[in-house]
């Protein structure tokens, strides 16, 4: 038999083998790469507001599946009855829960310990939930609303390179952990935190006054003891009077007179949560603390404030800003 005929026979046999094995190989590859898909995902919102709607939109972009939405409180009404909501969610045999807001997380974490829970829009989550609770419950992960202090201080360095002493008024019971982390971040950048501890809102004004002559900038923390309507007005006046840059909590505070603030993007919070959800549904087990920082930050700057305190904001920083007032 000629070499040509042998080659043709071998080729035909190979093609036949592939035609038989092809569907098997395809099935193996197809099912091997397909991510797990949740049949039922529930989104539980503390209230029905636009930032939460944008977050759910972002979640769906990453994980295109049906999501049943529940609201604890509608504007001007009580929203879903808590007991009824729990029965509805449980009755749907939920595969994963996405909570938006502290109230929603409080309800879910105590009633669904066997279902993966991803929380969002929660300030100081370790304190709200309890660090020990998080460490002992592998079903819980989430994204904090806290903006990393190191990122805020890096912006301050660009705006005011000579600023080395950062003052903060805080309640150790509410934001002690956050201030402790900020001290480490500040030291890494050649700065230091000048703390003023308080235990009641009535002490806030005097604590702000004690910062006079001791600091080069003031940093606001999400602390309901330290930040009240009265203390907010006073801290703005104090910063103007002393020519001190004030790092605000969010864009809202920049509008009111803070020099700058970093804020998170609601839609990207949803996308980030959707990516975490996808990993969980694919079978990934959690090996680290389940609290993540928001990854996409937006910078807002108040140029009127900069003028009031005699500060020339670098052009490079203005180009980074998403919003300028």
How many strands in all?
13
CATH topology of the largest domain: Rossmann fold
What best-fitting shape do the alpha-carbon axes yield?
A: elongated
Instruction: Give the overall pLDDT as a whole number.
Output: 84
CATH superfamily of the largest domain: Response regulator
Range of helix content? 40-55%
Main sheet: strands, sense, barrel: 6 strands, parallel
* Biggest sheet: strand arrangement: 2-1-3-4-5-11
How far is it from the N-terminal to the C-terminal residue, by CA? 88 Å
Output the CATH class name of the largest domain.
Alpha Beta
Kindly name the structural category. alpha/beta
Number of domains as seen in the coordinates: 2
The H-and-E topology, N to C, reads as HEHEHEHEHHEHEHEHEHEHEHEEHHE
**Unreliable runs, pLDDT <50, ≥5 residues?**
1-35
SS element count, helices: 14
What does this structure look like?
48% of the residues lie in helices and 19% in strands. The protein has two domains: 41-145 and 266-296, Response regulator (Rossmann fold, 3-Layer(aba) Sandwich), CATH 3.40.50.2300; 149-263 and 298-324, Response regulator (Rossmann fold), CATH 3.40.50. The strands form three sheets. The protein has a six-stranded parallel β-sheet, sandwiched between helices. Helix 2 (50-62) crosses helix 12. It is of the alpha/beta class. The protein is elongated. The chain has 14 helices and 13 strands. Strand 8 (217-219), helix 10 (229-242) and strand 9 (246-247) form a beta-alpha-beta unit. It starts with a helix and ends with a strand.
